[in-house]
Amino acid sequence: MTTKTTLLAASILLCLQAGTGLAAELAPATASADAGTTADAGRDATTLDAVSVVGTGQTRQVQALGRAELQREAAGTSPLKVMAKLPGVHFQSSDPWGNYEWSSKLSIRGFSQQQLGFTLDGVPLGDMSYGNHNGLHIGRAISSENLSGAELSQGSGAIDTASSGNLGGTLRFFSSDPAADFGVRLAQTFGSDATSRSYARLDTGDHNGFSAYLSGVFHTTDKWKGDGPQRNSQFNGKFVYAGEDFKITGFADSSRRRETDYADLSLESAQRLGMDWDNYAKDWQRAIDAAGGIFRGGVTSLDDAYYIARGVRDDDLVYLSADWNATPDLTLSATAYYHTNKGQGHWATPYSTSPTVPIRMRTTEYDIERTGFMPNLSWQIGNHRLQAGLWLEKNDHGVQRNFYDLNRNEPPDEIFFYRNPSARVFRQRFDTDTRMYYVLDHMEFADGRLAVDAGFKGLRVETDGKTLIGGASRASGKLVSEDNFLPQLGARWQLSEHEEIFGSYSENLSAFRTGVNGPHSTSQAAFDAAVKTLEPESSKTFEAGLRTSRDSIEASVAVYRVNFENRLLAIARCAGIVGCASSFANVGDVDSRGAEITVLWKPIAGLSWYHSLAFNDSQYESDYLDGTTLVRTKGKQVVDAPKRLYATEVRWEQDGLSLQLGAKYTDKRYLTYLNDSKVDGFWVVDASASYEWKQLSWADAFKLQLNATNLFDKEYFGSLGTNGFVASDPRGLNYTVQSGAPRQVFVTAEVRF
Asked: How far is CA 545 from CA 293, 550, 614, 703, in A?
């Protein structure tokens, strides 16, 4: 039995011995809302649906969307795309659902996805990056139909969030609990580009405190341009066993995802070839000709298109949590989890040749095995609610790059895991131990009108990297990210029955990345030279605001300032003629400041009008040396960080009818650190209509829903930085942008028995 398996078994045993119980169910609802730090597993669908989009009761900027909000989008839509309506959230993807991971790009207040924290029911999802190293994307962790809600903290995030990278905010997702009554839910979606999504869920109902569900989904669609399928099959299961003062929860997920990539464009190639330009599949001969320098139809470069590229991901995730109300004032809980992943990124590259064709399949191959344990307690002592907890994780991650020969007579049209490479470039393994602890005191004074949260967390992440193949270009060695005192302080003052003010300060640390894009992706000499002075990225966040919550209007205004320190970047350490390898270095700070406004107006019953407006100014604070070249980034805007974001949504609901029209404006964005290349701002409009029939003679409910994404068929650049960013590119030659999806229409029929 491996060490990881032993740890998992011991963790599960400890959970069972701890008894059980649910902190949010046992503590007063108002206290839970004020603290904003109750364990993720303690939030359920009922709680989330009641949370205001303006975050009433929180000591920091927090907003949440419930299940009903998530389900109004086209079936299978990523919650990341839904949450883009919240202020400060910038999300883009080149598919209509926001699920295509290579192009999925999220930023909050100028922080990129790799600098944010993500959890599902408290279980860490890592940074959800395409190049897996410490987690998995939310779309692979749970089917969207089984989500009960999502919570966004644009600033500090809850102190108990299990994340080693949340410099600029956290997103916490929550799975729905099994239904109290026996039932079957079936849904079928058809739509543009041969889309078909089939979903089925069986709920056992409650049997003396035990309930469970099992669900399955199969999603397939063609790309909206070019050739190649996108397929995903997924199974979820969850059980809950609850008594008077305990609750045990178990969850399992199995995901098999197969994606065909869209072509990465440059600004220049998009102008020359058009926004609908894509890879060559299934024109194998044209790809062969292009690899030999024979271009047709406006193509002038090997990088204008390849034959095909893909992402292949297999994930399995399980957790077991237990909560126990030991006394009326003391709640103990624990969660143990286990996650395995195998993945490959495929690229039919013309830069390497097979024996019979001038193209080879290059792969980047990933594997992850994570085991974690998270115990915590909550203790009410007078007007103090003390919370403390641990997060312990062992992560064994591997990455390798290989080449596979192709056959002139057999184009690589089938999606599968490649095995037995013809050439190996590098192979590395990373053993990472993570330890985080937190202590928090939630205090209430003046009959609850004043709430104060004061606490700190400590984080230590140690990675031991070993290069097994490719030692000339990949490094071995240990990296440690550590800070044992990261304070958080927040306060809320209730001015009146409807108005309140809040303010908070927090410090956070981001551990060094492992895997294909981390500091170990340099030569040994470059790594050894860098590690002596390398510091992990960190942030200090100040925010304050005012909220009002009335029958016809809810609104909030928040202002913030963030100091992002020790930004990491891969640069040359010396003049190019010397020949030293590029390595990672700290290149200065980033200063972000901004304001966010949220308004939800409900003038009459059934009608609501939502607005969110965000202004963010994120600037590099320092110049830096790349070799002997001074890169004058001081005062420049952060890449892919729009200054202005605006979302508006009007909705009409009457009986079983629901009509919705939403629009999102994204300001111009820069593609280079020197801001000499950019894409313009744009609007995108989505619409939906649904009608639900209830209490039918043959079913409990039947619902038809119509969704149209990009209703006015706007042509725009969606994702930026798919192949990273560069210091300067005034001619727009960097192949690192993707087109947004055109208008797509989907119809979903759902029945409940």
From this structure: 59, 17, 13, 40
Q: Residue 556 is encoded by which pair of tokens?
A: 């909030």
Cβ neighbours around 660 below 10 Å, total = 19
Query: Residue 475: pLDDT above 50?
Result: yes
CB-based burial, 629-654: b 16+ in 10 Å, e otherwise:
eebebeebbbbbbbbebbbbbebeee
Tokens of 311: 């992402």
> What are the pLDDT digits (tens) for 55-64?
888 998 999 9
Write down the residue that tokens 């089938």 correspond to: 414
Rounded to the nearest angstrom, the gap between the alpha carbon of residue 525 and the centroid of all alpha carbons in its chain is: 34
Maximum alpha-carbon separation in the chain: 81
pLDDT at 34: 36
Question: Strands, DSSP E only, in 110-177?
Answer: 111-112, 117-120, 123-124, 147-153, 170-175
Instruction: Give dist(CA 426, CA 349) in Å, integer.
Output: 17
Hey, is 264 helix, strand or coil?
coil
Q: Say how far apart CA 65 and CA 23 lie, in whole Å.
A: 21
Q: What is the pLDDT, as a whole number, of residue 471?
A: 82
DSSP 3-state assignment of 729? coil
| Rounded CA separation 437/458 (Å) | 5
What's the whole-model pTM score?
0.92
End-to-end CA distance of the chain: 44
Predicted local distance difference test score (pLDDT) of residue 581: 55
Q: If you ran DSSP here, which 8-state letter would residue 103 be given?
A: T
Residue 52 is predicted with a pLDDT of 58
Q: Per-residue pLDDT tens for 419-464?
A: 999 999 999 999 999 999 999 999 999 999 999 999 999 999 999 9
d(CA 650, CA 707): 15
For residues 65 and 81, is the Cβ–Cβ distance under 8 A?
A: no
Token pair 């395995």 in the structure block, residue = 340
Residue 296: helix, strand or coil by DSSP?
coil
CA distances 122 to 69, 70, 211, Å, are 21, 19, 21
Could you give the CA distance from residue 507 to residue 687 in angstroms, rounded to a whole number? Answer: 40
Burial letters for 92-121: b for 16+ Cβ neighbours within 10 Å, e otherwise?
bbbbbbbbbbbbbbbbbbbbbbbbbbbbbb
What pLDDT is stored for residue 469 in this prediction? 95
Q: Model confidence over 569-614: pLDDT tens digits?
A: 988 655 443 444 568 899 999 999 999 999 999 999 999 999 999 9
